[in-house]
Write a structure and sequence with these properties.
- This protein has 14 helices and 23 strands.
- With 568 residues, the chain is of the alpha/beta class.
- It has a domain of 203 residues: Glucose Oxidase, domain 1, CATH 3.50.30.30.
- The protein is globular.
- It has a 17-stranded mixed beta sheet that branches.
- Helix 1 packs antiparallel against helix 8, helix 2 packs parallel to helix 8 and helix 10 crosses helix 13.
Amino acid sequence: MIKRAFIFGAMAAGALALAGCDGMLPMGEAEAALDIPEIEAGELSEATMIDITRQLSSDEFGGRMPGTKGEELTVALLTERFEAAGLQPGNNGSWVQEVPLIEITGTNFAPLTITNGETDLAFDYGTEWTAVTYREDAQTQIANSDLVFVGYGINAPEKGWNDYEGVDVKGKTVVILVNDPDWETEGLEGPFNGKAMTYYGRWSYKYEEAARQGAAAALIVHDTDPASYGWNVVESSWGGPQAYPQRGENAPPLTSLNGWVQKEVAREILAAAGQDLDALTAAAKTEGFEAVDLGMTASTSFESTFRSFTSQNVIGVLPGSEAPDEYVLHTAHWDHLGTCNPPADDGDNICNGAVDNATGTAALVALAEAHAKAGAPRRSLVFLAVTAEESGLLGAYYYASNPVFPLDQTVGGINMDAFQVAGPAKDVTVVGPGKSQLDAFLDAALAADGRVATPNPKPEAGYYYRSDHFAFAKQGVPMLYIDGGEDLIDGGREAGAAVAKDYTDNRYHGPKDEFNEEWDWSGVMADLQLFYRIGRSMAMSTSWPNWNDGDEFRGVRDESCASSEAGC
């Protein structure tokens, strides 16, 4: 039985009324009432979660690198389980959407050599610096390229901020700080949202802007706190084969080399140039910062081999009973890194990706089963397992650019990436609260389950820009991203923080993210029940939730809806 509750935007202050949270914005008074049905608990299978997570993260699947045998096994498993769950093929009779990619593997890396004619410095690839190329060049060579320190490497006209103003970096190598200038701010006030990272703080933006400025190479200074992960993550994620979308005509410009250097390497380079890293970092945080020509040059080279291949998004749909042309998305990425570099101390080099993201992929199947058992909701439910997230959200971006189901007929969605397997929590962690009216649907589900929301405890990490929902948000589709809770029933917030730290330090993007038969799945199932309630409520609703007034994605959605004859 479905009960309906009409919740107004101004009333969505319940579980998410947390002042100063991660970019939180109040719901606008002018927003229309939202139709938020009350949803009974779903029949969710813990056995499904365990079995699929175990299979996907087994050594047989080889770390689920796109374009490998691991992909073939993954796609076959998901197709089989989606069909058994009661879904229909989601792409015009097919279970898959083909995603054209190219794999680039760098080899024979020369040291990164820095010189000013008097001082010669050389740094070893892997342990001190790492790099890739996005170009299809058999040989990449940076020879005597002038080094320029460009602070945070941001060009944001709407904020009156341009770290490249007055400097010509064409053909040069830019050295860039990670994150935003105000990432150390305690609150969320500042030119770049204070402590909360904006897209300008993400490494992907920094490389894109360096290329637009004509730089030959871009080197980001790795610093664990503002990056929110250690050098081991950089080394494992950027070593080995890298997948990228195949470039078409009129593609944006590219640098020849994009890389990272250890913080102490950057300190040594700047010292040789007569500069101090700490002093330049402090200066880069201020408006009007001027780039610094370091009077030194950089040189390195490496070779690349290429493989063009087609990867696959897997799509299943449960057609709606009354509004089948209106869609609610559930997304998770099925891929991982394949092999890890460096390997673990015991020689294990398979990046099994059990938590990240075999758990989220299993959740797609478990949710599909539960929704099918409950019967078709009024709107269609789409279950989308995307490829190449670890390579830069490539599968999600491809779908968002080539949607099977029109985005202006897509109500919104939920992304699932890495479930917390340390037992039940009183809360859930909301990444990017206050961004959209989907918060009201989350509020209702939390109230039904007797739980509360905690804002992202590390807004400086920019997690909202680091998983697949971001690709859809950029196209205007409202998306929720929710992580496991921090306030564990057994041990409270101290235990929750310890679990998160242990995973980040010892397993994230490493060979020890492996399935464990001793895991406590009760917290996973509680989170999954929350996702079930949210998704089904959206699918039973008649409302079209939007981004909040002033949100960065509101304009895109409004434009999309204004031009639509159907949907929003």
